[in-house]
């Protein structure tokens, strides 16, 4: 029997304390998506040669880099870039995996076999490799990186969606719906989709973390956002040469990535505990 | 068992073939004329473009091109680098040992660390030791490899001067990159062993063994450990494959020669044959490790052979 889906408020209330903190952190990280200009004290790309290599101080809370650019401002704008990279690529992954996964799981048959074989081939490329292939084809750049990460992670999402649908379709209410004469479309829309949402929310949260890691790795390698755009990965890469003395250039963006990913992982675990304890490995 | 092995071998071959399709299609999917892409920005007279097109077989229908590609690959010809004109196979042969040694060392460290810390943390459940291990594991899973690599470099190469910062060739060059690369897999294995041990330690037969008077250590090793270790082999094999992907970043951070670095440089320089060769190699290696993982798991757990 299907469980009654907890309402959004109930979900929030039932989150573990770690989950609540993580959610707060995530929301904080999303703020720069809206109004980075008002938050950042300086222009992130403003070069100022007489202010280079300043350690964190009153005027520049997080210091400046080799071009005199304020790290805090770059970090705020970079948060916007990296978070939107995560957002866009997760959305792309979902857009690709939901139709394929639901169709494969619901209709089974040859279509499902073909899709699963295709997924097997795609998953022969571990981790970052699929994203690298897409970047090799499309060329470096932020937009291309978003597409690359979205495509690269889609196979994993498709697998999860399909197996969720496989479980759901065995439920009594699906059979009842068909018995009452509901067509496929209606069954899918009103019964399958809402119940697939729960595992999807969980994998999207963790998937967001993965997208951030892969996306910023691409940036670090020089294959994602291009200079002078501020992005977590590119900022870490830019600060590499100055690690010995001017540690702040790499450390703050690196720490931000760490915080973002850890809180997303914890949030994902917490959401899973609330929404579907069966998923716990 | 033999039938299962054959079936998995067949499946793996199909997957590798599919991977070759994708690698082959890479050049074709680039917007624009493939030959022009190979030439890059240099202005080239039309006759030369057409000559190269014919030489590389790019004027043939796609199906024939693919067959040609498979034939060449099976012969060991992966083309020549666009930048150095050296055969790709030569370059790969030079760098594979570095990547292989990195990945294997990382795996050994990860398995050893995972087992040890998993056991320790399970046996000392809910103590500060357990919490410390769990936190380190969480960090390993969450922090991006390039950042942890830089942190290690800063701490151990720059501050303490224990290890060389970049390069390859000696064991000392290997340690930091291997630890960086293996941290993620080690974290996963630690969690796995820990939860496996916790589960087993709760069982009645453990309590019986202890009641019989067996020393805790005997109980641990003889009974608990065996069961907890079963999934470790499979997960470790899969992680070896994942490390092949992670090596891309680690090699760049530590400026190590390797397949990953060749791949990234290939993309940055638009050297398509190099990229294709490196990607194909990694995909094949990953398929092989997955095959070994599946077969070894089938060996350990007879039930899954018959699904």
Name the descriptors.
heterodimer, A: mainly alpha, 11 helices, 71% helix, B: 307 residues, mainly alpha, 12 helices, 79% helix, 0% strand, elongated
General description of the model:
The complex is a heterodimer of chains A (281) and B (307). Chain A has 11 helices and no strands. Chain A is mainly α. In chain A, helix 2 (17-34) crosses helix 4, helix 4 (71-107) runs antiparallel to helix 9 (184-221) and helix 8 crosses helix 9. The two termini of chain A are 22 Å apart. Chain B has 307 residues and is an all-alpha fold. Chain B contains 12 helices and no strands. In chain B, helix 11 runs antiparallel to helix 12 (272-300). The longest helix of chain B has 38 residues, at 216-253. Chain B is elongated. Chain B starts with a helix and ends in a 7-residue tail after the last helix. The chains are: A mainly alpha (281), B mainly alpha (307). The A-B interface holds A 117-118, 120-122, 124-129, 132-133, 135-138, 140, 209, 213, 216-217, 220-223, 233, 236-237, 240, 243-244, 247, 250, 254, 257-258, 261-262, 265-266 and B 11, 14-16, 18-19, 21-23, 26, 29-31, 138-139, 141-147, 150-151, 153-154, 158, 241-242, 244-246, 248-249, 252, 263-264, 266-268, 272, 275, 279, 282-283, 286-287, 290.
Instruction: Look at the helices and sheets of chain B and give the structural class.
Output: mainly alpha
Overall pLDDT score of chain B: 83
Shape of chain B: elongated
One letter per element, helices H and strands E, the order of chain B comes to HHHHHHHHHHHH
Major protein interface: A-B, 41 and 48 residues
End-to-end Cα distance of chain B, whole Å, is 12 Å
Strand content of chain B: under 5%
Share of helix of chain B, binned: over 70%
Low-confidence stretches of chain A: none
Largest sheet of chain A: none
Class by SSE composition of chain A: mainly alpha
Largest sheet of chain B: none
- For the record, give the distance between the C-alpha atoms at the N and C termini of chain A, rounded to a whole number: 22 Å
């Amino acid at each position: 029997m299907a469980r009654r889906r907890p309402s959004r408020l109930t979900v929030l209330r039932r989150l573990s304390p770690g989950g609540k903190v993580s959610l707060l952190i995530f929301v904080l990280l999303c703020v720069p998506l809206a109004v980075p200009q008002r938050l950042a004290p300086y222009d992130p790309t403003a070069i100022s040669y007489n202010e280079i290599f300043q350690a964190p101080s009153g005027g520049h809370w997080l210091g400046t880099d080799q071009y005199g650019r304020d790290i805090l401002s770059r970090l705020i704008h970079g948060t916007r870039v990296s978070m939107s990279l995560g957002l866009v690529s997760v959305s792309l992954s979902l857009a690709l995996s939901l139709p394929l996964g639901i169709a494969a799981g619901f209709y089974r048959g040859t279509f499902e076999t073909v899709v699963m074989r295709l997924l097997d081939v795609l998953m022969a490329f571990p981790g970052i490799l699929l994203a690298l292939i897409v970047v090799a084809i499309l060329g470096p750049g932020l937009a291309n990186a978003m597409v690359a990460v979205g495509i690269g992670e889609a196979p994993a999402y498709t697998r999860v969606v399909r197996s969720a649908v496989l479980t759901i379709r065995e439920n009594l209410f699906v059979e009842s719906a068909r018995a009452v004469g509901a067509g496929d479309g209606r069954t899918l829309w009103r019964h399958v989709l809402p119940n697939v949402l729960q595992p999807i929310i969980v994998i999207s949260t963790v998937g967001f973390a993965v997208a951030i890691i892969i996306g910023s790795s691409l940036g670090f390698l020089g294959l994602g956002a291009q200079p002078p755009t501020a992005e977590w990965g590119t900022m870490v890469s830019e600060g590499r040469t100055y690690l010995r003395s001017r540690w702040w250039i790499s450390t703050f963006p690196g720490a931000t990535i760490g915080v973002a990913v850890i809180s997303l992982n914890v949030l994902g675990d917490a959401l899973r505990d609330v929404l579907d304890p069966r998923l716990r490995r | 068992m033999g039938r299962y092995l054959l079936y998995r071998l067949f499946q793996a071959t199909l997957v590798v073939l599919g991977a070759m399709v994708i690698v082959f299609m890479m050049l074709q999917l680039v917007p624009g004329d493939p030959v022009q892409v190979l030439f890059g920005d240099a202005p080239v007279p039309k006759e030369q473009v057409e000559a190269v097109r014919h030489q590389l077989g790019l004027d043939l229908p796609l199906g024939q091109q693919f067959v040609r590609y498979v034939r060449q690959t099976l012969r060991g010809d992966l083309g020549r680098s666009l930048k150095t004109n050296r055969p790709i196979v030569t370059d790969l042969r030079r760098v594979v040992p570095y990547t292989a040694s990195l990945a294997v060392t990382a795996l050994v460290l990860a398995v050893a660390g995972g087992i040890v810390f998993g056991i320790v943390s399970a046996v000392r459940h809910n103590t500060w030791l357990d919490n410390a291990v769990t936190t380190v594991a969480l960090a390993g899973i969450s922090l991006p490899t390039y950042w942890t690599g830089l942190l290690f470099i800063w701490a151990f190469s720059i501050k303490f001067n224990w290890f060389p910062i970049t390069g390859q060739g000696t064991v000392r060059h290997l340690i930091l990159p291997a630890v960086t690369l293996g941290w993620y897999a080690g974290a996963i294995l630690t969690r796995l062993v820990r939860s496996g041990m916790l589960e087993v330690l709760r069982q009645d037969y453990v309590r019986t063994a202890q009641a019989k008077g067996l020393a805790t250590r005997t109980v641990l090793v003889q009974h608990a450990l065996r069961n907890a270790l079963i999934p470790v082999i499979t997960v470790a094999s899969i992680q070896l494959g994942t490390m092949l992907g992670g090596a891309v970043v680690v090699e760049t951070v530590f400026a190590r020669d390797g397949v990953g670095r060749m791949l990234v440089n290939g993309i940055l320089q638009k050297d398509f044959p190099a990229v294709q060769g490196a990607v194909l190699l990694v995909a094949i290696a990953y398929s092989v490790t997955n095959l070994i993982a599946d077969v070894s798991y089938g060996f350990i757990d007879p039930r899954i052979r018959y699904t």
